[in-house]
Amino acid sequence: MRSQEAALRTVAACTARHGIIPQDPELVQARREAQGAPEWTMEAVPGILRVYTDGSGLHPKDPYLRRAGWGLAYQAGGFSRWQWHGGAVPGRQSVARAELYAALWARTHFPGAQVVTDCLYVQHGCTALRTGKGSKSFFQGPDGDLWKRMAALEPPEVRWVRSHLSLEEARNLGFEQDWEGNSQADLAAKQAAQSRAPAQHLVDKQQRRMDLFEGVIGVVARVQEAVLNHERRHGHDIAKERKPKRQLPMPVDAPQGDSPAKRPCQKLPPHEALVRPQGPPPQGVHWLMPEQGPVTEAQSRALNTKGKIVSGWNLHCLRCGDYAVGCNVWREFARSFCPAEGGEAADHRWAPCNHEVEIRPWGGQCLRCGLMMRHRRVAVASESRCMTWGFYSQGGEVPAARPWGAWYTALPSTWKLDRGGECAPHWNVSEQGAPGVDEEAPPTGDEPEGQQGGSPIVKRLRTGYRPHALVVGAGLVVCLRCCWVGSRRGVRAGQNEVCDGDWGISPLITAYLLEGAFDGALSDAGPELRRLATARGWLGGMRPGRPPD
User: Fold this and answer.
1) In this structure, what CATH number is given to the domain that contains residue 78?
2) What is the pLDDT of residues 29-43, one digit of tens each?
3) Containing domain of residue 76, as a range?
4) Phi, psi angles (nearest 5°) of residue 158
5) Is the pTM of this model over 0.70?
């Protein structure tokens, strides 16, 4: 306490009350003299190809004691002896300004020479001045006066070099000469900064001053903390005027205790997957089925095109035979009237409706779309619009159409996401003939539409898309099915193209197979690819014997 009271008696009133540190006149005068250091010059030295520059500083964190010096080094006349110069930095005392002033001094006294520096600030600034891009930010910075002088002289070519490396590291990186030149410039800059070091009594005075004010500010901080704790205590006038923390309203029939925000809430269960409704839909509702089978050639090219994610998928109605092309119009088509079973379109309509929320242990869940929510959002959700529309017939809603409405709402997104452009197995009837004997026959038209189980299949009278059967070897990429041949760079192109089918046996591919060029790729291939290779003449890794001479 006595030391703190003594400190409070010896410092200024503004520091004891507010913690503000006043300026010392002697330190301010010393800093002003350091910033007003005169510049020295000499005659220009022509013929110098490369100049190494650097900057150094003392007490860089103290605004009153910091001093900066610049230095440069070069070799003249083809001799290995280094010559260097250095001096004081006028203006702001910082290492960055010393680096910039050294480059400016080199440009002034060594015209045409390349400047090598370890300061990216100088390298980026000179590049900006030479290209004219971003020079305004350097002119408006704290060293704008030096940058304007540099711009008036046409900035030199500046090359950056790493610093603070050992000679062995520099030799391994291949710039031993640059390391030596940078070291000479660094010695010159340090010597220039040491020659401008502040007097020792100024350093001691600033140290005592900072120690004293550090203790005083600590006392002021503790006093302020005690005042804040006193004003925040329960029953104080300031605490009474402060607004209470916001809490959620308590339900009327809720038991007394913690507020709903503090009660432990049950974790929401995971969302259940949307299941396709079974059986035929009600009268007036479309019975929709996306197109089945693998993608066509045109759709494959559209999917493999970079940046294109929309393709013309078809959605068929199994009742009326109508269809819609493009997933972006599926919902609009699903919410239209199906006239297959009679009735008037005016008596059957789809209309938007709000969420129908049922209370659950964790909160609530919409009976239409399955959306789950917390207790605090049940009231708001009940007045919000649901994505699943309701189907109305003769003025009343048809409850049996709800699962179909939810299914058709999520169908465009979930169908593409789950299948990724491919559909469930189907009966693929090609244009050249009927299915083979071993294949499953398509359903006949005598079967009723409304039978339970799987829905009728929409057949596509089109040949399915087939990718290339690619193998890599001998610098080539070969399709064993259509005999397509490309270079190794064509692997991606072959994967994105359509295979044209069996075009016969190519002697070139057979020769490569017999020589074992594709043994490495076929050893890890599947049974289908190995079967195609065997049909093309591959012997499974064995070499055919040669006849005797």
Assistant:
1) 3.30.420.10
2) 999 999 998 888 888
3) 38-195
4) -115, 135
5) no
